[in-house]
């Protein structure tokens, strides 16, 4: 098969009937042979899918046939293997969870900055550059000079900003995230808090790595992605990180040399956190993975419960 197309997409738009959208969208995705995760909420749509060129185009065409999503944009990358195990469409309260009421990027949002103009902005010494991602994402790569809030969840971001920054002192703020969606809410929040000049990287890190030549880049390291590629680098090439199945954090070759690393079970970050019962479950799972590997089969675990019930009914 040709390379798999990986499409990351999101749009903030009022979807009051989002509950009713789930099953038809899931059926279209399954029929098109794509896999991944899409989130639906009253505030919009967010997610990443992967499949054949025709399959991904089919899903995108279905979505854009909805008058509210006609201008839905997406970003593409490519992989030699399917980066997802199954297809899921989830209903959520928010498509990116900040937990602050009244934040609506359709009402107010920061100024978008094209990747080509990003270097000039963040090289300005008067600009406060904030990485809005979580600590485990920042650990493997970020922009030179960026502040790491050391958050473990995006819910912690508002409290971090209120504790550390004041609109009167920080006149220019620039923010970035993986694909742009977190910065939509982060910049809307900061505008609401009274910050005047708020900028965010249009298309996120992924668009920057796609468009800005490596020799001109101010990005250092790799960018964590939420699929089986784990990380990407310049040109959106697959990076060198794997995933710890114990804590879901990215790990590198140095981590694998640690006495606390056990494939499919633990890494140095979680060895002392994961319980013995969890370690036993993870070891059992790893045995199944290795058996599937010996049989040259794909181990994906049990299908989602709803699909199990439907399969039994059929």
TrEMBL record:
The gene is trhO. Pfam families: Rhodanese (PF00581), UPF0176_N (PF17773). Residues 294-314 are annotated as: Disordered. Belongs to the TrhO family. It catalyses: uridine(34) in tRNA + AH2 + O2 = 5-hydroxyuridine(34) in tRNA + A + H2O. This is tRNA uridine(34) hydroxylase. Its EC number is 1.14.-.-. Keywords: Oxidoreductase, tRNA processing. Residues 123-217 form the Rhodanese domain. Transmembrane segments: none annotated. One of its GO terms (biological process) is tRNA modification. Catalyzes oxygen-dependent 5-hydroxyuridine (ho5U) modification at position 34 in tRNAs. It comes from Zhongshania aliphaticivorans. It is an enzyme of class 1 (oxidoreductase). GO terms for molecular function: oxidoreductase activity, acting on paired donors, with incorporation or reduction of molecular oxygen.
